[in-house]
Amino acid sequence: FVLVILLFLIVLFGMMSPDSFLTMSNMFTIVRQSSIMGIATVGLLFVMIAGGIDLSLSSVISLESVLAAVLLTKLGWGLVPAYMLGLITTTIVGLLTGMVIVKTGIFPMIGTLALQIILQGVAYLICGGMPVSNLPATAKIIGQGYVGPIPFPVIIFVLVMIVATIVLNRTYIGRHFYAIGSNEEAARLSGINTAKLKVATYAIGGFLSGLAGLIMLARISSGQPTAGKNMEMDCLTAAVIGGVSLTGGEGRISTAVCGVLIIGVLSNGMTILNISEYYQLVIRGCIFLGAVCLDGIQKKLAGRKVKKVA
């Protein structure tokens, strides 16, 4: 079903603007632009499979963007140390987020929303509210470089997908993530350390959001305190469209990637057709609402079937 929607959108925008949309360069543009959102969505997928949610990923992307930019330009750090410190920082942020949510028992949506506001403020403080530019040329490779005809961000995205698929489908840790999201109490009684694994999903989400932030930094050639603005809603929409359940225990990398490409094609197509940004926000919001409603309807139908069988 998700693949059908993706193909439908490609055909629709192709018919409406064949000269601009159906070109090889534009297809590469869509995939390259979707790579940043896709990497962050994979991180969010880990959190959601284990029954959580993370609304702070947009601020984590912004934080990574300005932190790495300041280290590179104002403090004169080398490329590798700056990127490593940035990724370590966002991973620790994710780790602390998970610990707060698990230890206090607060709703993940509320906790990560509060963290989103805090991190957004920290991002502004780091850069003084101004974009940080004049990056060294080597810092732009990760977002603007190519390996043959393939954009570098796409290669990173593919590698992230492969590793994530192996972890979720071929390791006992991945199976434990699904078990926790399906029934946390049953997973705990079966001997799974649910607390540590739930914290680990937020750490994974923080790391991948940081990686997305680095690519965003290189792509726009400056550290922006608003680099990840509204990214959390696009990632959530892509994940839910791709079959990741809001209640946990369900979701696959392959269908989530299709969800990412749907959002990417939709954004690119509407931009080519010169649709107002305000209308684009309305359309994205409606799509997210529809995806959430469908997820809720599926859960209700599944619950009724279980009751009938019982």
Structural summary, described in words:
The protein has 310 residues and is mainly α. 77% of the residues lie in helices and 1% in strands. It has 14 helices and two strands; from the N terminus they run αααααααββααααααα. It has a two-stranded antiparallel sheet with strand order 1-2. α3 packs across α12 and α4 packs parallel to α6. The longest helix is centred in the C-terminal third of the chain and has 33 residues. The chain is globular, with a radius of gyration of 20 Å. The two termini are 30 Å apart. The relative contact order is 0.19. The model has no long low-confidence stretch (mean pLDDT 90).
Kindly summarize this structure in a few lines.
This protein is an all-alpha fold and 310 residues long.
